[in-house]
Design a protein that fits this description.
The structure holds two protein chains of two kinds. By secondary structure, chain A is an alpha/beta fold. Chain A is built from 14 helices and nine strands. In chain A, strand 6 (155-158) and strand 7 (162-165) form a beta hairpin. Chain A is elongated, with a radius of gyration of 24 Å. Helices cover 41% and strands 13% of the residues of chain B. The longest helix of chain B is centred in the middle third of the chain and has 17 residues, at 204-220. The chains are: A alpha/beta, B alpha/beta. At the A-B interface, helix 2, helix 5, helix 6, helix 9 and strand 9 of A face helix 2, helix 3, strand 1, helix 7 and helix 10 of B.
Chain lengths: 290, 382
């Protein structure tokens, strides 16, 4: 894995895989690579937190290993699990073959080939790799404590086998939507980056990258309307991802620009609350989105 | 001044401004800058922000401190809109009851009862400083906590669903014979408790006790969230997490800029829901709103926001200092607008009432007497 020499170089390489990074993101990712620290990315939904991990994996030509968090996530789903059916089958086969030495059997049963590596173990064993711990705020405190342990020394101990150590720690991106506050101890281990909604120019550039077929007028219209919606105090303002979806929807209808009728028909791609849709359409009818 | 000395000095500035910058973070910053060009302000800015900040609330403070300390605005930093609750100039308060003209409700209690028992039932607004301190000690002994809910996490148990992992593991140890079945069951975990405390002028006599109640809740469960509502919304959960009640209250008071001002309940409730509630803080939580419901101006916003809160929360409890007093009716326009979205309306003017509140919020199931519009006689569950 050849590391970039400066944030600017990393920004160029991210650009080459269609992720437009500003100074902040480029510096954050650069330091995460250089210092071997996890990058903790927070921000509104749909501003490109997960996409950053995908882009980094592509730049480093490393596999992306994703761990989606949810309440009740435990070691068997995040670290490793034993493949019980195969172990039992092996036991039966051994019996049929007449192997009775219990020590040998025990040794065979807890062999590495019966171990199912879950994302964290897989990331530690795969060199190089990018580990994406997605939506950490959805997991519960127990998991957070446990993740902290893994992220601090990148080792996992399997009692039956021994300790698995990462020869080269994976690049770790942890994302959070801030549905709750993540514990300080975990944040202290990480570099903290807050991602904001992009400004108009960047939004236009990103949509262009993602939907190259869309006309300049359409992209500018969508970006302007989206920016305007974010100032409207909606329950859930549209993020960059919604702007891209909306453009894709309009593009699929063959739109060359945005008008009231098209907006009304496709608004569901960008605005996901009924109350919000009504407000946006009322403003749009007065020409407030243009 | 060496570069490192300058960085340590800046960290001290940040600490004074309220960002918790430990030596570990400063160390990370120094290390980060080794990989960058310290001659470029943008590099210094970004590496500092990445290592020293830990939340969006820190960013505005960091930006201001950076500009003040290094005398330069960060180059290349994007314009950022940190969603801060809107600040509203306090409006003049007119015709507000201060509590003194309320009926003399509890003084007739038996003289023979112990002093504390009497104190428990006296309206907090009319206590002397010494009596208030004693009530403070009574409140510190409370341990309010929300009810529990089923968690997705399981733990080993004697009954319940079969635990395949442990059962098979035991089978393997016994040469593949299913000799014993292991079970596991869902755990219960406490629901989050969220307290929203109105600290406007009309609530001033009760604010101290309510915050002490909140502190007792924070001590019981550090995940409790406490906000004060006045002309602006302030989160005081962090401050209240200190163990000592007096220190915690002093810290909370220092962070609240708008004691005894006016109040815009609807707007501040909206600010709470936009910034915290909808993201998750209010979801499935027991939300306790302590206010007298004096809302100036249009109450329709309060009605809409209360309905929104009610959709998110598990239960909404409204604590009013006036409930239970003689002649009380939920007649203030604000309370009227809020009532359809309130599950329980209770008193909060005495230590005994707050004690009852602590028991009430920990109840698992409640019968839900909904307060309807025009139901002026309802005085809630005492």
């Amino acid at each position: 894995m050849d590391l970039p020499a400066s944030p600017a170089e990393l920004a160029e390489r991210l650009d080459a895989v269609d992720y437009l990074a500003d100074d902040g993101i480029a510096t954050a990712a650069f330091l995460a690579l250089r210092m071997g620290r996890p990058l903790f990315v927070e921000g509104e939904a749909g501003v490109g937190k997960t996409a950053l991990a995908h882009a980094l994996a592509e730049v480093l030509q490393a596999p992306l290993i994703r761990l989606q968090c949810y309440e009740g996530l435990d070691a068997a789903q995040a670290l490793y699990d034993w493949d019980f059916p195969r172990q039992l089958l092996h036991l039966r086969t051994a019996e049929a073959a007449g192997i009775t030495d219990p020590e040998q059997l025990e040794h065979e049963l807890y062999d590495r080939r019966f171990l199912i590596a879950r994302p964290l173990l897989r990331a530690i064993e795969t060199i190089p790799s990018v580990l994406l711990v997605d939506e950490i705020d959805r997991a519960d405190d127990e998991f957070e404590a446990f993740l902290l342990e893994v992220l601090s020394d990148f080792t996992i101990s399997v009692p039956e086998i021994g300790t698995v150590r990462a020869e080269q720690p994976p690049v770790v991106v942890v994302t959070s939507n801030r549905t709750r506050e993540v514990h300080d101890a975990l944040k202290r281990r990480c570099l903290y980056q807050w991602l904001d909604y992009p400004d108009f120019d960047r939004e236009v550039a990103v949509i262009h990258r993602r939907i190259p077929a869309a006309s300049d007028v359409l992209v500018a219209d969508v970006a302007r309307a989206t920016q305007r919606m974010r100032e409207m105090d909606l329950l859930k303002p549209p993020g960059l991802a919604e702007a891209i979806d909306w453009t894709a929807a309009l593009q699929a209808l063959g739109a060359r620009g945005l008008d009231l009728d098209l907006a009304a028909r496709t608004l569901g791609a960008a605005v996901k609350y009924h109350e919000d849709q009504q407000r946006v359409l009322a403003v749009a009818a007065e020409g407030g989105l243009a | 001044m060496t570069a490192v000395a300058a960085m340590v000095g800046f960290a001290r500035t940040l600490r004074a401004a309220g960002i918790a910058v430990g030596p570990e973070r400063v160390h990370a910053w120094v290390e980060a800058l080794r990989h960058l060009d310290p001659g470029q302000t943008a590099h210094v800015y970004w590496s500092g922000r990445l290592t020293l900040c830990s939340g969006p609330d820190d960013l505005a403070v960091y930006d201001a401190a950076f500009a003040a300390y290094f005398g330069e605005h960060p180059i290349g930093a994007p314009r950022r809109r940190v969603p801060i609750a809107t600040v509203i100039v306090p409006v003049a308060v007119e015709g507000e009851p201060d509590g003194s003209d309320e009926a003399d409700d509890t003084r007739s209690l038996a003289v023979s009862a112990s002093r504390q028992e009497v104190l428990r039932h006296r309206d907090i607004a009319r206590l002397s400083a010494a009596e208030r301190a004693e009530v403070g000690r009574l409140l510190a002994a409370l341990s309010p906590s929300g009810p529990t809910r089923r968690s997705r996490r399981r733990r080993p148990a004697r009954h319940g669903r079969l635990d395949p992992a442990r059962t098979v593991r035991a089978m393997l140890r016994r040469g593949g014979e299913p000799a014993q079945l292991y079970h596991h069951e869902r755990m219960n975990r406490p629901r989050r408790l969220v307290l929203l405390i109105d600290i406007s002028g009309s609530m001033a006599p009760y604010a101290d006790s309510l915050l002490r109640f909140a502190h007792a809740a924070c001590r019981r469960r550090p995940a409790t969230e406490v906000f004060t509502i006045g002309t602006r919304l302030t989160r005081v959960s962090r401050e209240l997490r200190q163990p000592d009640p007096d220190q915690a209250l002093a810290a909370a008071s220092a962070s609240v800029p708008d004691w005894s001002g006016g109040t815009r309940l609807g707007e501040q409730l909206k600010a709470f829901l936009d910034r915290w509630g909808q993201r998750g803080t209010a979801r499935g939580a027991v939300v306790v709103l302590a206010s007298d419901g004096w809302e100036r101006g249009d109450v329709s916003l309060l009605g809409v926001q209360m309905a929104r809160l009610h959709r998110l929360a598990h239960r909404v409890v409204w604590v009013s200092p006036h409930v239970g007093k003689e002649g009380f009716a939920p007649a203030t326009a604000g309370l009227q607008a809020a009532l359809p979205s309130v599950d329980q309306l209770v008193a909060g003017n005495t230590a005994a009432a707050l004690d009852r509140l602590a028991k009430l919020i920990s109840q698992e199931e409640i019968s839900r007497p909904r307060y309807r519009h025009g139901d002026a006689t309802a005085t809630g569950i005492g």
